[in-house]
């Protein structure tokens, strides 16, 4: 599985962005798709995940209500809608995938930069 993120960029505080993660093969049934981010000088942290089989989602507590993860199984694309962005959301955002019976994310994209000023 190869993952390619897009949609990052620079935005003013209060704005919105939608990130996309396209997978090279079907992840429609047995995968968890997730978004992680790594702010400058900080460790990578989990943002949100979605179970592709039933659409069940999970979010970092601090991001609930502002970020929404969705999945288009027909297109093999996962999205991260980010609203009310703040400077502290500035980070490299990564898409990842894992088989549902594994705990580690084995597949990672190259990342897309989000800068909020």
Describe the structure.
The model has no long low-confidence stretch (mean pLDDT 93). Strands 2, 4, 5, 6, 9, 10 and 11 form a 7-stranded mixed β-sheet that branches. Strands 1-3-8-7 form a 4-stranded antiparallel β-sheet, with no helix packed on it. The relative contact order is 0.32. The protein has 117 residues and is mainly β. A hairpin with a 7-residue loop joins β9 (91-99) and β10. It is globular and about 40 Å long. The protein has no helices and 11 strands.
Notable features of this structure?
117 residues, mainly beta, seven-stranded mixed sheet, four-stranded antiparallel sheet, 11 strands, 0% helix, globular
Q: Helix tally? A: 0
Report the end-to-end length measured between terminal Cα atoms: 34 Å
Radius of gyration: 13 Å
Order of helices and strands: EEEEEEEEEEE
User: How much of the residues is beta strand, in percent?
Assistant: over 45%
As a percent range, the share of helical residues equals: under 10%
Main β sheet profile: 7 strands, mixed
List low-pLDDT spans.
none
State mean pLDDT (0 to 100 scale).
Answer: 93
Q: Based on DSSP secondary structure assignment, what is the total number of beta strands? A: 11
Q: Given the C-alpha coordinates, what overall shape results?
A: globular
Structural class: mainly beta
Task: Summarize the SSE layout with pairings.
Layout: E1 3-6, E2 9-11, E3 17-23, E4 31-38, E5 45-51, E6 57-59, E7 67-72, E8 77-82, E9 91-99, E10 107-108, E11 112-116
Parallel strand pairs: 2-11
Antiparallel strand pairs: 1-3, 3-8, 4-5, 4-9, 5-6, 7-8, 9-10, 9-11
């Amino acid at each position: 599985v190869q993952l390619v993120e897009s949609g990052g960029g620079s935005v003013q505080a209060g704005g919105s962005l939608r990130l996309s993660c396209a997978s090279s093969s079907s992840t429609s049934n047995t995968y968890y798709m997730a978004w992680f981010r790594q702010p400058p000088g900080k460790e990578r942290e989990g943002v949100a995940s979605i179970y592709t089989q039933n659409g069940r989602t999970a979010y970092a507590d601090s991001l609930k209500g502002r970020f929404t993860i969705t999945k288009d199984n027909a297109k093999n694309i996962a999205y991260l809608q980010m609203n009310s962005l703040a400077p502290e959301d500035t980070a490299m955002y990564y898409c990842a995938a894992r088989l549902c019976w594994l705990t580690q994310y084995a597949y990672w994209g190259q990342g897309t930069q989000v800068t909020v000023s």
